[in-house]
Amino acid sequence: MTAFLLATTLLSAADLGTTLTPEQLAAGWIRLFDGASLFGWKGSGWTEAIQGNLQSSGGSIQTTTRFGKYDVRIRVRNRTGAKGALGLDCVPGGACQQNLPLPSQATEWQWVEGSGSGGTLRLTAENSGVEIAEILAHPLSLHPVNGWVPVKRGPAFFSRTQDGRIHMEGGPAEIVTTDRFSDFVLQCSADIRTLRTKPEMWGGLFLRGDADKMWSGIKVVLDNRFQAKDPKKPVDYGTGGLYGKQPAREIFTRNRIPMRITIIADGPHVSTWVEGYQQTDWTGGDSEIRPSGVIGLQATDANFGFTFSGIRLAEL
Fold first, then answer.
1. Of 33, 80, 115, 128, which is most buried with the most CB atoms under 10 A?
2. Torsion angle (degrees, nearest 10) of CA 246, 249, 250, 251
3. b/e for 145-178, b at 16 or more Cβ within 10 A?
4. Hey, is 142 helix, strand or coil?
5. What is d(CA 217, CA 195) in angstroms, rounded to the nearest whole number?
6. Would you say 314 and 141 are in contact if contact means Cβ atoms under 8 Å apart?
7. Is the distance from CB of 302 to CB of 102 less than 8 angstroms?
8. In whole angstroms, what is the distance from residue 121 CA to residue 137 CA?
């Protein structure tokens, strides 16, 4: 039998380089650099996580994820005067609509801020000396997702409050949107609870599902368990993981504490963030991707309960 633990005493988001404040998380900010790796980026000429910072050696890197409207902030210093820029609204392999110059000579950390309207982000530097400590993004123009209908296969209780929170107990069951969506940014807060004594509780969000077929589409897992006391070994792909496709990188959330989730689905590419920390960066084949579908909230069985709040979306 596989041993697992519930996420009760875990690394905090700050331990994982996720130093967003509660206010930033509530507003929807996410981190594009985790303080330890180039996960979510591709390219060359930047060295990951030297003393927790990105350091340039001459070259460019670009996010694998395309954003809609967004604000961005990076914390940077430049010890050598090397020319560098933050490109916004970039086309992979092509030009950027905006190029914000990085400080040319700054031994102290400085913030560079900008706003984009759609595309990837790119960091460039002509040679060594540029250091990046933080890269933060804030998706904009998200609107509440209204219109939900239950798809039941077992006993379940659904309710929706006036402030838009969705609560469900029991299962197996699902509640889905009345509208279909294709490419989008979605943010929400999710709180999963054990209703009885069974500890291994999990659920999920389904993307681009069939309205008349329960639990269809790409599943973003909500499961705070991990194996052998190692948060880097999630059970059942872990919170923020993509079921059957890519596991979460590390589990630091727990049941009964709301978790801030960000999902960007763009054609065959899906990225997820939990508490501002990027968990997945996955690109599927044509056979794995449907062009559009409903969004579904999953309850697994009679022991399960969840509350989703602040479900907002912007189409790309």
1. 33
2. -20
3. beebeebeeeebebeeeeeeebbbbbbbbbbbbe
4. coil
5. 27
6. yes
7. no
8. 10
User: What are the DSSP calls for 234-286, one per residue?
Assistant: ESTT-TT-BTTTB--S-----TTS-EEEEEEEETTEEEEEETTEEEEEEE--G
- Triad 94, 125, 140: Cα angle to 5°: 60
3-state secondary structure of 15: helix
Place of tokens 């875990």: 10
In the chain, the amino acid numbered 212 is D
Distance CA 74, CA 284 (A): 30
Half-sphere exposure of 183 (CA within 13 A, CB side): 11
pLDDT digit string, tens, across residues 234-276: 988 999 999 999 999 999 998 888 999 999 999 999 999 999 9
Strand partners, 56: 46
- If you count them, how many residues does the chain have? 316
- CB contact at 8 A, 140 and 68: yes
In terms of phi and psi (left: phi > 0; alpha: psi -120 to 50; beta: otherwise), the region of 38 is: alpha
DSSP class of residue 102 equals P
- Domains defined along the chain, listed by start: 26-139 (2.60.120.560), 142-315 (2.60.120.560)
- Whether the per-residue pLDDT at 8 is higher than 60: the answer is no
Question: Residue 33's CB: how many other CB atoms inside 10 A?
Answer: 25
Helix (DSSP H) and strand (DSSP E) numbers for the chain: 1, 24
Mean pLDDT across the stretch 133-156? 89
What does the angle CA 41 – CA 45 – CA 46 come to, to the nearest 5 degrees? 60
Give the position of tokens 């997820």.
272
Query: Shortest CA distance to 18 belongs to which of 219, 238, 278?
Result: 278
Residue 212: how many CB atoms within 10 A of its CB? 9
Res 2: pLDDT: 36
